[in-house]
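Long-time lurker. I teach an intro course on protein structure, and each term I like to show students one example going from raw sequence to a predicted 3D structure in token notation. This year I'd like something fresh instead of my usual example. Would anyone be willing to generate the tokens for the chain below so I can use it in lecture? Attribution to the forum is fine with me.
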Amino acid sequence: MRDKKFLYEHSSKLVEEAKEKKLFRTQRKAVEAGAHGTLDYTIKKGVNKNRIANEKILKSKK
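-- Reply from a regular --
Happy to contribute to a lecture. Here you go:
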């Protein structure tokens, strides 16, 4: 009897977690590219200090 109790609790816990995961998956929203300054990063140190990082600067660093 005791074993069944833990098995029931565990299975109900798994069901709840699956429901949560499904809900989170459907409620996700796409993020805006460039929102809140994420696209235009300002370099803080080095030769290119206070310049906005663009493709040309980033390619030369690689």
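Some talking points for your students: The mean pLDDT is 78. The chain is about 55% helix and 0% strand.
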